[in-house]
C-alpha cells in the first residue's frame, strides 16, 4: 500500500522456486487499475495484462530455469536465496512485460542493523543489464533488507522476524 494505491501479488512456485503462476491486482482509491495474470504451462508462459492503457497478451517459450521475478514485490526476493549459484537465468518481469537474464551471487554473511539491533545476514546480489539489487536474508531465507537503486527501491524490516 502506498497512499491510495494498493497492489496485491501472488506468485505460486514449487518447492524449488519454479514458477507455477503469478497474479497482480493494482487498485487506486478502490478501483482496479492494473491486473496481470501469468499462467505457466509445460512449455509456455501465457501472460495477460489489463491496464488503464489497454489490454495485452503475450506467450513465451518456457526456458530451463526461467523465473518470474517481480522486483517491486519485496517479499518475493526470498527466492534469491534459493537460486544463488552465479549462473545466468532467464526471468520474466511481469510488470514491464520483459524477459531479462539475471545472475544471483552470494557475498557471504555480514552484519546489518534491523530495528537498532545487529544481526548477521546473508548478502546476495541480483544483477542484470540494468544494474544490481542487493538483498539480505536471515538463516531461514526471510528477507531483511533490499536495496535496488535501479528501480528506486529501498526496504528494511522494522523488526527482526520472530521477535515482537
Description:
The structure is a single chain. The protein is 3% helix and 60% strand. By secondary structure, the protein is mostly beta strands. A seven-stranded mixed beta sheet has the order 6-7-8-9-10-11-12. It has a five-stranded antiparallel beta sheet with strand order 1-2-3-4-5, with no helix packed on it. Strand 3 (31-40) and strand 4 (44-51) form a beta hairpin. The longest helix is centred in the middle third of the chain and has 5 residues, at 79-83. It is globular and about 45 Å long. The mean pLDDT is 89.
Topology record:
Elements: E1 5-13, E2 19-28, E3 31-40, E4 44-51, E5 54-61, E6 67-68, H1 79-83, E7 88-93, E8 98-114, E9 117-128, E10 131-137, E11 143-148, E12 153-156
Parallel strand pairs: 6-7
Antiparallel strand pairs: 1-2, 2-3, 3-4, 4-5, 7-8, 8-9, 9-10, 10-11, 11-12
Instruction: Detail the poorly predicted runs.
Output: none
- Main sheet? 7 strands, mixed
* Secondary-structure element order, N to C: EEEEEEHEEEEEE
Total beta strands: 12
Percent of residues in β-strands? over 45%
Pairing-aware structural class of the strands and helices? mainly beta
Concise overview:
With 164 residues, the protein is mainly beta. It has 1 helix and 12 strands.
Distinctive features:
1 helix, 5-stranded antiparallel beta sheet, 12 strands, globular, 7-stranded mixed beta sheet, 164 residues, mainly beta
Amino acid at each position: 500500500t502506498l497512499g491510495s494505491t494498493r497492489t496485491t501479488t501472488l506468485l505460486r512456485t514449487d518447492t524449488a522456486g519454479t514458477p507455477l503462476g503469478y497474479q497482480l491486482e493494482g487498485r487506486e482509491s478502490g478501483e482496479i487499475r492494473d491486473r496481470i495474470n501469468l499462467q505457466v504451462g509445460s512449455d509456455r508462459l501465457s501472460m495477460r495484462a489489463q491496464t488503464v492503457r489497454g489490454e495485452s497478451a503475450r506467450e513465451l517459450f518456457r526456458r530451463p530455469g526461467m523465473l518470474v521475478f517481480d522486483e517491486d514485490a519485496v517479499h518475493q526476493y526470498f527466492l534469491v536465496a534459493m537460486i544463488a549459484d552465479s549462473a545466468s537465468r532467464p526471468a520474466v518481469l511481469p510488470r514491464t512485460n520483459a524477459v531479462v537474464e539475471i545472475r544471483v551471487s552470494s557475498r557471504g554473511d555480514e552484519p546489518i542493523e534491523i530495528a537498532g539491533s545487529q544481526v548477521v545476514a546473508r548478502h546476495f546480489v541480483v544483477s542484470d543489464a540494468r544494474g544490481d539489487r542487493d538483498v539480505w536474508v536471515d538463516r531461514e531465507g526471510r528477507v531483511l533488507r533490499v536495496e535496488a537503486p535501479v528501480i528506486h527501491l529501498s526496504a528494511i524490516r522494522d523488526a527482526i522476524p520472530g521477535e515482537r
